Amino acid sequence: MTRRDLLFRSYLGLGGLAVMDLLSAEALNASVNSGSPMDPKPQHHPAKAKSCIFLFMEGGVSQMDTYEYKPALLKYAGQQMPKAERTTGELATFSAAPNRVIPPYWEFKQYGQSGRHISSLLPNIATHVDDLAFIHGLKVDNNNHGPAVYHTLTGNIIPGGASIGAWVTYGLGSENKDLPGFIVMGDRRGATIGGAGVWGSGYLPAAYQGTLFRNGSAPIVDLNRRSDVHAGTQRAELDLLKWVNERHAAERSNTGELEARIASYELAFRMQTQAPELVDLSKESDATQKLYGLDDAVTEPFGRQCLLARRAVERGVRIVKLLHGAGGDRWDDHGAIQERLPVHCQEVDKPIAGLLSDLKSRGLLDSTLVVWVSEMGRTPFDNNLTTDKPGRDHNQYGLVSWLAGGGVKAGATFGATDDFSVRAANEEIPLRDFHATLLWLLGLDQNRLTYLNAGRYKKLTDIGGRVIQEIIA
After folding, report:
1. Which run of H or E residues covers position 52?
2. Torsion over CA of 64, 320, 131 and 351, rounded to 10 degrees?
3. Backbone dihedral region of 464: left (phi > 0), alpha (psi from -120 to 50 degrees) or beta?
4. Spatial separation of the C-alpha atoms in residues 463 and 374, rounded to whole Å
5. Are 329 and 298 in contact (CB under 8 A)?
6. 3-class DSSP state for residue 336?
7. Pairing relation of β-strands 377-378 and 394-395?
8. Read out DSSP for 359-406?
9. What is the separation of C-alpha 262 from the centre of its chain, rounded to a whole number of angstroms?
């Protein structure tokens, strides 16, 4: 008697049911697992979020002009601010030097059942406050843009770390083998601080780095096959190239970059069938395009990014990172904030609100984690006492973020800043707590998501962070 026959005949056939379940699971895994580093991987624990849209506002969004209502700024407008307590470095120095409190120039109103105050600069996002969970008073480890951007997007202020997107695809793979698992959409006006390093794989295998889509009607360069090249010819050329590369790799160690290149050639070939449909927004209805602001020259660039992001996660892409702000158009408003900040907000307000509405109406919000964050907050004061166009300086202690979608407790709030929006009013919230929470919502345990590099098991949260359960449903 074979083992299978024994199991079928034992205990009223329940053993056979178990075997059939195992066999079906093995068959499923065999059909999904192709040996690619981007094959789907199981979550460490059950989680609603299967994908992530990461909205990064580069330059340092002014929290007291957008998401934090601080009446003290109106009361002390034009006066010297009290020295910022429990701060060090640049912020402590500037807060003690001659300065003047700059009040918000825009009205705050309460929205939704949560009654949250939101600035009039963000009227469309404001209508979604009951879907958002806010974290107030996050602290990054540096007060300068470069290190702060790296810290926010890779977990380390020093270049060379693995980006959040690389960690997520390393942990979960992707559900669409014909599209990149990690897509990045840059600002049309230039590169982000840190360049490709903020979406790179760092010390992780190179296959997990992000794929940059350009902003505009042709996000992917040379996507279509040349008319004079037959698909069979191209496939034969790739097979030959793959054979040569694999033979080369078999004779050597440390071949991660070569293996990633082999995988990228294969992905590029497959993308020629599916990516043209992904980036063709003409198939979206006029109503949907207007929802994202594609009918307005101001909102069209970021609206296009947001609509592409929805289309990507709808097709199984694991994580999409949208970058807003570049060059002189970053959210880095040291001066003339009254003129500059409304432009930044107008560019993203309608597209992001459209994204949230569209995801919700299609039933995708429950399985998609949406994250808004910048690399730092701003100060409530200006040290330039002579200008008639004041702005706000860097503040590594006052970052505000919000999350929505899969597994997030809608309408929740964690943390609070002091009366002047300088730093956390109570216990400090290190950025690694934010990273730990993001991973948890995607079904990843920060302590299990590790990679051995240079004799140490690295992880996104470095020494470890606290999962902020207060914003998890």
Report:
1. strand 51-57
2. 70
3. left
4. 22
5. no
6. coil
7. antiparallel
8. HHHTT-GGGEEEEEEES-EE-SEES-SS-SSB---EETT-EEEEEEET
9. 27
Model confidence pLDDT, tens digit, residues 123-165: 999 999 999 999 999 999 999 999 999 999 999 999 999 999 9
Domain boundaries along the sequence of the chain: 50-218+284-471
Q: What's at 249, amino acid-wise?
A: A
The SS3 of residue 159 is coil
Residue pointed to by tokens 């002009």? 65
What tokens were used for 357?
């509405």
* Closest by CA position to 52, among listed 163, 149, 215: 163
- The CATH class for the domain spanning 50-218+284-471 reads alpha beta
Q: Is the dihedral of CA 43, 47, 52, 55 positive or negative?
A: negative
> What pTM, to 2 d.p., does this model score?
0.87
**Could you tell me if 319 and 165 are in contact, meaning their C-beta atoms sit under 8 angstroms apart?**
yes
Q: Is 95 exposed, middle or buried (0-12, 13-18, 19+ CB in 10 A)?
A: buried
* Residue indicated by tokens 């001066």: 335
Give the DSSP per-residue string, 400-447. Answer: EEEEEETTB-TT-EE--B-TTSSSBSSS-EEHHHHHHHHHHHTT--TT
3-state SS class at 88: coil
Per-residue CA distances from 23 to 5, 35, 41, 62, 214 (Å): 14, 19, 18, 56, 44
User: Which position has the token pair 């926010």?
Assistant: 152
Query: Is residue 286 classed as helix, strand or coil in its secondary structure?
Result: helix
- Provide the 3-class DSSP secondary structure of residue 456: strand
Instruction: Locate 346 and state its tokens.
Output: 């107008």
Q: Which residues pair with 456 in a beta bridge?
A: 453
End-to-end CA distance of the chain: 51
42-94, pLDDT tens digit by residue? 999 999 999 999 999 999 999 999 999 999 999 999 999 988 888 888 899 99
Using the structure block, give the residue that is written with the tokens 């949230």.
356
Rounded Cα distance, 320 and 322, in Å: 6
Enumerate residues 6+ apart whose C-beta is below 8 A from 110.
Answer: 116, 117, 118
DSSP symbol at 1 = -
